[in-house]
């Protein structure tokens, strides 16, 4: 199995943040974002690594940033390690394939979720209330395609669980004009990628974005349309019998739910077969979408 990367440190370069998966380094007016092979579930970083996961996340994000820049400007600059600043060149081999140089932006602290199908937290909300994202529906079944994609924002948390909020609540923290623009772009991005992926045998059931500001202009940041930020389903299985076979980390969530882990303590190690099958799912998403 490929060697997995648990963490990345670059002596002499300030690390701004070590997230669940990514390490973010400060390079003045730019950031260096490096994806490790860590995986998280239920707001915990799992003790087991998924080899090559960070490379796959990075390559997919770069592909989508370049494919959607006609919809909205984004923060991606380059993934050409030879063009990175001299301060990180000694670590070129480690960074190659799993990092990107990006513009530094002020984060808009809202998770912007687009839902085209009912699943996940939206399904749980619907089961209790009959409402999804402020819209009332009737007779929906888990996995159903929604009549039109919904924008369902959530609070942004680096250490706890994101909490779904209404669009009106979002406008209390984000100026109304910016909120409307972000909502519009979230749906446009989802519609574009959903159509593209569908032709390649993948249903993007839902996804989330982050936005930032540079000199007052709203741009797309972080990662987009990866198996960590989206639910990818096998279209063939969905069309055949509505099986929600995933190419994302839902496979890991399902495994953890089958164990006796209470989700309120340190998570267990993943068995080797779960690691291998998860890695294969991520590789299959990459293969179908960009290779």
Supply database-style keywords.
alpha+beta, Phosphorylase Kinase, domain 1, D-amino Acid Aminotransferase, Chain A, domain 1, 2 domains, five-stranded antiparallel sheet
Description:
By secondary structure, the protein is of the alpha+beta class. The chain has 2 domains: 15-103, Phosphorylase Kinase, domain 1 (2-Layer Sandwich), CATH 3.30.200.20; 106-251, D-amino Acid Aminotransferase, Chain A, domain 1. Helices cover 31% and strands 26% of the residues. It contains 8 helices and 15 strands. Strands 8, 11, 12, 13, 14 and 15 form a 6-stranded antiparallel β-sheet that branches. Strands 1-2-3-7-6 form a 5-stranded antiparallel β-sheet, with helices on one face.
Q: TL;DR of this structure?
A:
With 291 residues, the protein is an alpha+beta fold.
Topology diagram in text:
Blueprint: E1 15-18, E2 22-26, E3 30-35, E4 40-41, E5 44-45, H1 53-67, E6 76-78, H2 92-95, E7 99-103, E8 106-117, H3 120-129, E9 131-132, E10 135-136, E11 145-151, E12 154-155, H4 167-170, H5 176-198, E13 202-214, E14 217-221, E15 230-234, H6 235-241, H7 250-257, H8 272-290
Antiparallel strand pairs: 1-2, 2-3, 3-7, 4-5, 6-7, 8-11, 8-12, 8-13, 9-10, 13-14, 13-15
Tally the helices.
8
Class computed from helices, strands and strand pairing = alpha+beta
Helix content: 25-40%
CATH class descriptor of the largest domain: Alpha Beta
CATH topology (fold) name of the largest domain: D-amino Acid Aminotransferase, Chain A, domain 1
- For the terminal residues, how far apart are their CA atoms? 21 Å
How can the largest sheet be summarized? 6 strands, antiparallel
Query: Could you give me the name of the CATH homologous superfamily of the largest domain?
Result: ATP-grasp fold, B domain
Number of strands: 15
Strand content: 25-35%
Q: How many domains, in number, for the residues?
A: 2
How are helices and strands ordered from N to C?
A: EEEEEHEHEEHEEEEHHEEEHHH
- Low confidence ranges: none
What integer is the average pLDDT?
Answer: 95
| Rg result | 19 Å
- What best-fitting shape do the alpha-carbon axes yield? globular
- Proper CATH architecture of the largest domain: 2-Layer Sandwich
């Amino acid at each position: 199995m490929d060697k997995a990367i648990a963490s990345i440190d670059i002596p002499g370069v300030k690390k701004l943040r070590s997230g669940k998966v990514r390490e973010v380094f400060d390079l003045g007016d730019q950031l260096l974002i490096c994806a490790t092979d860590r995986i998280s579930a239920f707001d915990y970083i799992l003790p087991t690594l998924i080899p090559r996961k960070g490379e796959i996340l990075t390559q997919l994000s770069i592909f989508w940033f370049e494919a959607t820049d006609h919809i909205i400007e984004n923060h991606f600059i380059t993934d050409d390690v030879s063009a990175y600043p001299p301060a990180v060149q000694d670590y070129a081999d480690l960074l190659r394939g799993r990092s990107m140089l990006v513009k530094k932006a002020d984060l808009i602290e809202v998770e912007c979720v687009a839902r085209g199908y009912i699943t996940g937290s939206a399904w749980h909300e619907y089961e209790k209330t009959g409402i999804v994202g402020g819209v009332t529906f009737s007779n929906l079944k888990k996995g159903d395609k929604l009549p039109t994609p919904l924008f369902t924002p959530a609070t942004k948390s680096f250490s706890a669980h994101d909490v779904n909020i209404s669009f009106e609540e979002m406008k209390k923290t984000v100026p109304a004009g910016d909120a409307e623009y972000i909502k519009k772009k979230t749906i446009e991005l989802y519609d574009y990628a959903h159509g593209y992926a569908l032709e390649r045998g993948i249903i993007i059931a839902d996804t989330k974005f982050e936005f930032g500001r540079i000199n007052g202009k709203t741009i797309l940041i972080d990662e987009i349309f990866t198996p960590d930020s989206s639910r990818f389903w096998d279209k063939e299985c969905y069309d055949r019998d509505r099986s929600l076979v995933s190419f994302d980390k839902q496979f890991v969530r399902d495994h953890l739910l089958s164990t006796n882990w209470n989700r309120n303590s340190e998570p267990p190690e993943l068995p080797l077969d779960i690691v291998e099958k998860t890695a294969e799912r991520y590789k299959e998403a990459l293969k179908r979408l960009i290779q």
